[in-house]
Specification:
Elements: H1 7-19, H2 30-38, H3 43-50, H4 55-61, H5 72-85, H6 87-101, H7 120-136, E1 143-146, E2 150-154, E3 157-161, E4 165-168, E5 174-179, H8 191-213, E6 224-230, E7 237-243, H9 245-257, H10 261-266, H11 280-288, H12 305-315, H13 323-328, H14 335-343, H15 352-372
Parallel strand pairs: 5-6
Antiparallel strand pairs: 1-4, 2-3, 4-5, 6-7
Helix pairs in contact: 2-8, 2-9, 8-9, 14-15
Length: 373
């Protein structure tokens, strides 16, 4: 008689059912994790990402194709720039790390660049952990890990993450390196893009801290990461040290708030499936069976944003107006409720939100009356 399936095996089987038969899982990367942490109340994104559903294909099948993501040109340009930065055993990259983060150390004269090849993400994660442990045992030397693999538990499901690089300093501390293709003009880059890179790097820092916690003594994971970008309009690298302590704290707190994926999966109707091959009506019903928390910020972070925005507008949800507005309105969740409260047709007069709306409506009426005189 075969042994009973463990809870973890049962969850993986359930998530595979949600993806659809023979549909491969899409890896959950740091960019997606940072976006997920920015909207922890969205059960829809949590279960779709946890199940490895390809949200780009899903959005197209729903009739609301996504404009989110990088162009092929940007990807090619980014890969070429990264290869240039890491050429010659990462000599230029290590020089930038030394210059921006560790001037007190001996300048790098070469570094150990271990081979991280292994079978599957679990194998690569184990190999990365082994090489980090070996690097900790070589004090005084520089080590460069090119595209290591890290694992981070997200709502009860493992996410495998691949930073551009991790550098082990001579003092044994670890630094995350982010290589981006957007330019650094006169020593500074677009603040919005730097912020997105910092949130992504914070996810890697969290994952590295879990590796470090298993070592004795635990190496220090630096909270200042190295951001490498093209200088001005050239293909030459420039770098900046970015403190990600704030982003790390926020991301850790938000990830801890995520409802466990197995709890969301258990609440779904039997037979729910998100395969893009399903008829549009059936697929829409499956997606709508999971509650979403839409906000305008989703347009720059989630492939399903156009679909969720359309549904939010159809139901008159105030979340489509932004999180700040939603927070101010308290228990008023629809535009219809807000207008009724402002007109004095509904709502508790003792509610501060209702009182503010009625005051605003009265002031508007006075202003319109004065303008018509």
């Amino acid at each position: 008689m075969p042994p009973p399936r463990t809870r973890g095996t049962a969850l993986r089987h359930r998530l595979a059912e949600l993806r659809g038969p023979d549909v491969p899982a899409k890896a959950l990367d740091a960019r997606a994790l940072a976006a997920l942490a920015a909207n922890p109340g969205c059960a829809r994104r949590a279960i779709l990402d946890g199940a490895g559903v390809n949200k780009t294909a899903l959005a197209s099948a729903l009739g609301a194709p996504s404009a989110f993501g990088q162009s092929q040109f940007a990807l090619t340009r980014g890969n070429a720039f990264e290869a240039k930065v890491k050429a010659d055993g990462g000599a230029e990259l290590l020089r930038l790390v030394h210059e921006k983060l560790d001037r007190s150390a001996e300048p790098p004269d070469g570094a150990w660049v271990p081979d991280l090849t292994a079978t599957g993400p679990q194998g690569r994660t184990a190999r990365t952990a082994l090489e980090l442990r070996e690097a900790a045992a070589r004090p005084g030397a520089w080590t460069l890990l090119d595209h290591p693999m890290l694992a981070l538990d997200v709502a009860g499901s493992p996410a495998f993450l691949e930073p551009d690089a991790v550098v082990v300093h001579p003092d044994g501390s670890w630094t995350v390196v982010e290589i981006k293709s957007f330019p650094m003009l006169d020593g500074s880059a677009d603040p919005a893009k730097v912020g997105a890179a910092a949130r992504q790097a914070a996810v890697y820092v969290l994952a590295l801290e879990e590796v470090a916690a298993r070592l004795e003594p635990a190496p220090r994971v630096r909270h200042r990461i190295l951001l490498v970008c093209p200088r001005d309009f050239s293909n030459l690298p420039a770098a900046s040290a970015v403190d990600v302590r704030k982003q790390r704290a926020v991301t850790a707190r938000q990830l801890a708030r995520l409802t466990r994926i197995e709890d969301i999966a258990d609440a779904l109707p039997e037979g729910t499936c998100f395969s893009p091959e399903l008829p549009a009506e059936e697929l829409t019903a499956a997606v709508e069976s999971v509650p979403a928390t839409y906000a305008p910020e989703c347009l720059s972070a989630c492939e399903l944003a156009f679909h969720c925005r359309s549904r939010s507008r159809e139901t008159g949800a105030v979340t489509s107006l932004g999180r700040a507005v939603r927070a101010e309105l308290g228990g008023l969740t629809t535009v219809e409720d807000v207008l009724a409260a402002a007109r004095g047709e509904a709502g508790d007069p003792g509610d501060p939100a209702v009182a503010a709306l009625r005051r605003a409506a009265a002031l508007r009426a006075e202003a319109l009356e004065a303008a018509c005189r």
